[in-house]
Structure formats: C-alpha cells, structure tokens
Amino acid sequence: MDLVKNYRCTLDDRSLAYAKDELNEEPSERQGAVETLRDWVKQQPHLVCRLDTLFLLRFLRCAKFSQLKARKMLETFTSLMGKVPEWFKNIDTREESIQKVIDIGYCLPLPGVDDEGRSVILCRLGAFNPDDKDLSPAVLVRTCMAIWEWILSQEHACVNGVITIMDFTGFTLKHFTFWGVETIKKTTLFQQKHFPARSKGTHYYNTSAIFERILSIMKTVHSNKMMDRVHLHGSNLETLYETVPMRMLPTEYLPDDYTGPNAGSIKDYAVEVRKQYTDDKIRDFILYDSSDKWVFEERKRPIEELGSEGQGSYRRLSSNE
C-alpha cells in the first residue's frame, strides 16, 4: 500500500493556525521534520514501522514536533503492538466477531466534527452481552483500535483531537468482571501514555455504583492532566450537549422534540459504520496499519540508543545536527 507519495496537507485555515500555536507546527518546516524522523527510522536496526508522511506526522504532532519525543513514542507504540498481538495485530474488519461488535453499536465514530473541529467516538460499554462466548476483551479492543486508527488517519483528528463519550447504560458487575481489574488498568495506561492520539476529553454518561471502582482504578494510572479531562455527566444529557453538538448524536441521545440533523438511530448508524469499515479502502488500510511486519526488537537496539533515553528533549533536531 503506497501512502507516502503525493502528500498534500488537508487542514483548513483554523486547524493550521491551531497546529502552529499549540503544536509548534510550521508549514514550511513540516516536510523537513518528517524527513528527519523518517531518516532516523530507516537507520534503526531494531525498528520497522510505517514510513508514510501522515503516520509520522501523527507522532510529531503528539510530540509537539520534538524529534526525540516522537522517536520515543514511535518506539514504545511499535513495541506494545508486538507485545500484545491479540489486541493490535492483523485486524480484519471483516472478521465476524468484529462485525458483531460494530453491529451492536459498542464503539461508533460519530459523523462530522464538533464546533472545535474534534472527532467524537461513542463507546457503549454496556451494549454487549458479557456471557456471549464469541466475544472477549481482545475482540472489543481490536474493534476499538480499528475505529481509532482510521479516525487518526485523518489530519484534522491528529491536530484538533478526539473526544470520547463513555455510555455506561446497562453496565453491570458482569461487564466489570468480563474485563477484570488488570485489563482495565492496561487499557487505561495504554490510552494515556502510549497511544499517539490527542485525547481532548472523556465524557462519562449514566454511570452507576460500579463506576466508582473503575474511577478509582483510573486515578492510579491517569495523570492529573488526564483526570482534568474526565467529565462526569450522571444521567444529564444537557451538560453533554454543551460539548457534543446534537447534530452528531444518535436519536437515542436526543430530546423527543429535537428535529434537527442527527446520526440516526444506533441500529441504523451501526449498519452504516459496518459498511464503511468493511469496504476495501478502510479494511485494507487497517490491515496494513496493524500488519505484523511492523516490529520492535529490543535485542537489535543499538547500545548508544539504550543510553540516550535520559537526554533532554528538543523541539526540533535537523538531520545534520
């Protein structure tokens, strides 16, 4: 799959200004920064990853164009993909189990963007049957990864960020047991520290008593900055509307008297998402993105690289420095 050639920035003027002010991104220096990171990857015997511009920009933007931070993030991300292949490798959106998770509307990318240009993902944590033997934590994570990775292949999401709605309607002790404490810790830690995405907030809706246990787990691994981006709405959708426009939401989350644009019913919208994600274009991209040919091999890592982790981080490093 050729994703490298003919890169053309797709950011609108507002996003370009935001990228410059918040991420230290200078359009005139963007390609040079990508080439520097790409050249570095090519020289690493222990690291094999995608080299296309959009992929490398994702790490540079998360690192606010610090080459050293981007390198570290890239190594960590690639390493973790290999350590937990059942979560992250060879994701095929035509797998029956993944299609089943999409069909029930467990994880859905909502249409469009919010008023600040951010993508929104809806995760309905109580939507699945925890007694279903066809489902496992790995299947749910793989489905979510497919959704996230395609969204993050879009430049606006890498710059403006992503908001997540976590709907706990129907979430029971059985759902909690299905995941288990250790898996909840691992997924939370991965999202916060190792996943190259600009998370701009997580909104929890319709939480029950069991959520207090989950929140206590989150507090052990989340930074204060991430906890500041946690928003609890109880059963009040009005406060959610202050962040997520009604036009993006399924009808189940809208007032009865609302007649404006919306995502349609969860059932109908899930059918649309399934069609999108099983189409050749998106399916092939996700297979390529999650390929097991992308590897991090610690035993091949140069000794000088092992000793450089304590060095300070600089915003930019030119290829000849």
What does this 3D model show about the protein?
With 321 residues, the protein is an alpha/beta fold. It folds into two domains: 22-87 and 292-306, Helicase, Ruva Protein, domain 3, CATH 1.10.8; 91-285, Phosphatidylinositol Transfer Protein Sec14p. 49% of the residues lie in helices and 9% in strands. The chain has 16 helices and seven strands. The strands form two sheets. The chain has a five-stranded mixed beta sheet. Helix 3 (53-62) packs across helix 4 (67-83). The chain starts with 12 loop residues before the first helix and ends in a 15-residue tail after the last helix. GO terms for molecular function: phosphatidylinositol bisphosphate binding. InterPro entries: CRAL-TRIO_dom (IPR001251), CRAL-TRIO_dom_sf (IPR036865), CRAL/TRIO_N_dom_sf (IPR036273). Pfam families: CRAL_TRIO.
List the defining traits of the structure above.
Phosphatidylinositol Transfer Protein Sec14p, phosphatidylinositol bisphosphate binding, 7 strands, globular, about 325 residues, Helicase, Ruva Protein, domain 3, alpha/beta
